[in-house]
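Tokens for chain A. Residues wanted.
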């Protein structure tokens, strides 16, 4: 079930390993995962701070508990790419990142 992407709703998320999905209205815009030794609540709180500070627009979220967040996130990203031929908006490389990679290769 989608929940509003607010601090109040994020507080109810368990501090366990897993993956999460951010939506802008009905569109999936980001698939994220927990890092080792960091729980979902902390990751979502961080994403909420980023959304408030930057131009990231997310209105809702869902999550899934898993012991293998890296694998599950990769599976979800692959499935999204196979379905839509692209990555979710905020999982795509940013132009600045691409430029920095090109400069590093020189």
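Reply:
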């Amino acid at each position: 079930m989608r929940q509003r992407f607010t601090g109040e709703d994020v507080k109810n998320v368990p501090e366990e390993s897993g993956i999460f999905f951010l939506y802008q209205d009905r569109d999936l815009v980001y698939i994220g995962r927990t890092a080792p030794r960091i729980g979902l609540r902390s990751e979502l709180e961080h994403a909420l701070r980023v959304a408030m500070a930057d131009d990231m627009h997310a209105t809702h979220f869902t999550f899934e508990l898993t012991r293998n967040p890296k694998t599950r996130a990769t599976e979800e990203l692959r499935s999204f790419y196979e379905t839509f031929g692209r990555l979710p908006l905020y999982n795509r490389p940013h132009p600045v990142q691409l430029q920095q990679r090109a400069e590093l290769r020189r």
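The helical segments are 7-10, 40-53, 69-84, 95-105. Residues 17 and 37 are 8 Å apart (CA to CA).
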